[in-house]
Amino acid sequence: MKCKAKTKSGKRCGMSAMKNSDFCYMHNPETQLEAKSFQRKGGKHKVYVINPENVVQDKRIKFDNATDVREFLTGMINDVMQGKIDVRVCTSINYLLNTVLKSLEISEIEKKLKELENKVGIESDNEADNILNFTGW
Ligand SMILES: [Zn+2]
Q1: Greater confidence, 56 or 29?
Q2: What is the pLDDT averaged over residues 31-45?
Q3: pLDDT tens by residue, 44-56
Q4: Centre of ligand 1 from the C-alpha of residue 33, in Å
Q5: C-alpha 38 – ligand 1 centre gap (Å)
Q6: Using CA atoms, how far apart are residues 23 and 54, in angstroms rounded to an integer?
Q7: Which residue ranges make up each domain of the chain?
Q8: How far, in Å, is the centroid of ligand 1 from the Cα of 7?
Q9: pLDDT value, residue 96
Q10: What's the gap in Å between 95 CA and the centre of ligand 1?
Q11: Cα–Cα dist 126/115, whole Å
């Protein structure tokens, strides 16, 4: 059975309800305080949870440029400061975002290189193109 609590946005919580309760661990009045203090205390009692209210379901994030990444990071920093997401989640996402940034950077360089090649009027001698077009097997 699902938790009967509603999130700030008015949606159903979506977490599984606890045994003999209509609510999940986070929303059950009997465990809510405990859950919150676990989140705050840290140390050996630290429970790493993502606030179910902040789980965006079926949403795909797209990063087209560094500005997108920066805006997302800024939002995430605010969420961490407000305790909405766990700092460990933030660290993992940050790691992935660095990879996204690197690939955006490479795409940008490739784009500029192509433009230059077109201007000068030379054929691309891109190694990746050569591998893709290789028919010598
Ligand atoms: Zn709940």
Answers
A1: 29
A2: 61
A3: 444 445 555 655 5
A4: 13
A5: 16
A6: 17
A7: 1-44, 60-117
A8: 8
A9: 92
A10: 29
A11: 13
- Using only C-alpha atoms, the chain has a radius of gyration, in whole angstroms, of 23
Query: Widest CA span of the chain, in angstroms?
Result: 74
Whether the Cβ atoms of residue 17 and residue 2 lie closer than 8 Å to each other: yes
pLDDT of residue 113: 92
Distance of CA 5 to CAs 17, 19, 66, 107, Å?
Answer: 9, 15, 37, 45
Strands (E) across the chain are located at: none
pTM of the entire predicted model? 0.47
CA 110 → CA 54, 59, 67, 103, 104, distances in Å? 37, 29, 19, 10, 10
In angstroms, rounded to a whole number, what is the distance separating the alpha carbons of residues 122 and 91? 44
Residue 95, amino acid: Y
Residues within 5 Å of ion ligand 1 by Cβ?
3, 5, 13, 15, 24, 27
